[in-house]
Amino acid sequence: MKITIQDFLKKKQQGQKISMLTAYDYPFSQIVDEAGIDAILVGDSLAMVVQGLENTLPVTMDEMIYHTKMVSRAAKNAVVIGDMPYLSYQVSVEDAVRNAGRFIKEAGAHAVKLEGGREFADTIRLLTKSEIPIMAHIGLTPQAIHRMGGYKVQGRTEDAQMRLLEDAKILEDAGAFSIVLEAIPSGLAERITNELTISTIGIGAGPNCDGQILVIHDVIGLFERFVPKFVKRYANLKEDALKAIRQYKEEVEKGTFPGKEHSF
Ligand code: KIV
User: Fold this and answer.
1) Staple partner for 103: which of 11, 37, 82, 199, CB 3.0–4.6 Å?
2) Which one, of 25, 21, 22, lies nearest residue 70 by Cα?
């Protein structure tokens, strides 16, 4: 069944959880979509898990559009959300509308996500007015890695918790249809979830958000550099791929592949 962003609100109202995963290309998007996941984020995490970069900062708008096109092509039912890369929306609201619009117009996304709190409320207001549905993202925002001093849990103090709760409310008022809560204490995520009418999507934010998201390479065992505490690995595809490729190499070297059944 085709999912739309209206279903994010409906699911929250009906107490049904929203499932999200990232994907960055056609085959993985096809698998995630076929599994019935509600929404696919083409995350700027692709800088790390696909491009092999140190952090998410270098990935460009053109690269994000390239990957989002592949994901949109394969997703028949899931909502596709493009992730605004670093400096694609921070410099001016004009840039923000032009770049967010590219995800919708060129890449076939249904919505875009951007990191940041109240300082982006005006940007979200204008994007929403331009018919671009926005998923906000607060807590640990990886584009702020240098200010935050690493990938650290946010909202540890009472003041920081109050600020995150206020940010969430401001972003809801600005028009965001949903909000990612990353790496914050479960109790705070539960409070934000209860006080907002829009859906919260948690990653490292405990079980009481309206939905959950993880990076697909973490879920299926394709990213090894570090595994955050909040990740659950459901498969180890790297091990399976290694086994298959080693066997292929051995058979080529021994001359047992190709066999008669693979020859004309
Ligand atoms: O880039 C990304 O994949 C993300 C999710 C982890 C929320 O922002």
Assistant:
1) 82
2) 25
